[in-house]
Amino acid sequence: MTRIVILGGGPGGYEAALVAASLGATVTVIDSDGIGGACVLTDCVPSKTLIATSETMTNLALAPGLGIRPHGLGAGTEPVLPAVAWGMRSGLDAGVPPLTPPEVVSVDPEQVYERVRELAKAQSLDIERRLEREKVEVVHAAGRLVGPHAIETNTGETFVGDVILIATGASPRDLPTARPDGERILTWRHLYDLKEIPEHLVVVGSGVTGAEFASAYRAMGAEVTLVSSRERVLPGEDPDAARVIEDVFVRRGIEVLNRSRAASVRRIGDGVIVELTDGRTVTGSHALMAVGSVPRTKGLGLTDVGVRLGPGGHVNVDRMSRTSVPGVYAAGDCTGVLPLASVAAMQGRIAMWHALGEAVSPLRLGTVSSNIFTEPEIATVGVTQVMKDTGAVAAEVTTVPLSRNPRAKMMGIEDGFVKLFCRPGSGSVLGGVIVAPRASELILSVSLAVEHGLTVDQIAHTFSIYPSLSGSITEAARVLRPRDFFAGFDSAG
Ligand SMILES: Cc1cc2nc3c(=O)[nH]c(=O)nc-3n(C[C@H](O)[C@H](O)[C@H](O)COP(=O)(O)OP(=O)(O)OC[C@H]3O[C@@H](n4cnc5c(N)ncnc54)[C@H](O)[C@@H]3O)c2cc1C
Q1: Ligand 1 centroid to 97 CA: how many Å?
Q2: Domain made up of 185-291: CATH architecture
């Protein structure tokens, strides 16, 4: 029987353990901080739980535009934020103040953070129980490689495996001039221990994490300043999608400081001061450092046994999750391949299928879908605008704004779009970008099309619900398939 020892119990580690156990291997998972990993305990799950609250706050803020009048908010009541701050540009909301915290509804921070912590803990426990049911041995300890087949823990035990999987994840990047203190200068892992919604949160970094928290905290009533070193927020994303988000941010009252690099962050009394490299300063009650992550590969004994690391400290792996040492595999954020829970899990599964002699295809990143949980969300899959614009991929593209979608109009949604890329000639769907509320749910049909090589013709002939936001996906397909009799039905109907 093959013995597998896995270092790290996040999605890279626990999903691998489940696969290996189902194939009859003897499996041990060693984890220092809790099963489920940073994904479940501090990063992905907590942030999306927090965002469930902020999303509800946004919906409440927009409710007056749909004719909902709270009791006690009479004519002449001054909203804390102007209506326009909640992104309502049309006549829908004319003269109707938005529901804005703290007047009519407010967030109870302690309850919100406790809910986040409890949900994360419960999910971690669920995964641990599942591992136990599958007869996976779970060891709560920190481990390090002491040979290509052996891991030693800080509790003095040694675990020997025919196969080792390294899945130790990553930690928030720390800047020497902006050391987090957990009280005022924070990483995203400190947020859920706060007692309050920051009065004025200065978010340093406008990548996915910075944008998600800026969006969420603004919706929960915080003043937010977003410090971005680049031309625009979300520099790595579809430029049209990033423009929509930046526009919404600005309309909702987030101060976006583009081309502004933070040089240092210091505490001043009950607040923080962020010094920019051009000499300007920004003050706030709290600073959130969202400047990326570093792999947790230091001190693991990896290079001592011959495992090669990249310049940033990531474990070098191939598409079968193999490292440079036979029998040692790696998965997840420690490899720097693509920092997503879904990718970590797939890398871990591939490692086990490969190690245990199953037929397995190498990891394919071209069909990974991902989502940014701002409000609205941005979901993407496959070919990107940059790939098309640089000529890396020949593609036709069309963008259908949601403002043309009848369901969106009924729901008062004005921001967002559906963009589809297809191969010229054959019309095979190559990729898509959706900016919409719950874009994460809408992208699946595009992902299916990309994964299975469906054509825009096939999508165009698929019934979508009328009226529905997904009607814009079939509409985009019809636009890319010219001469269609029904083109425009969803927008005109
Ligand atoms: C704020 C935020 C939000 C995110 N949201 C999403 C999202 O919405 N969707 C998505 O797909 N991804 C999201 N991600 C990314 C996702 O969290 C990661 O890609 C995922 O956690 C990677 O899984 P992993 O198994 O590689 O590592 P982790 O989840 O980090 O797990 C690694 C585990 O290894 C343990 N470990 C480390 N060193 C040792 C050691 N020496 N001994 C024993 N154990 C050790 C750690 O304690 C940890 O439990 C988000 C990330 C952040 C920062």
Answers
A1: 41
A2: 3-Layer(bba) Sandwich (3.50)
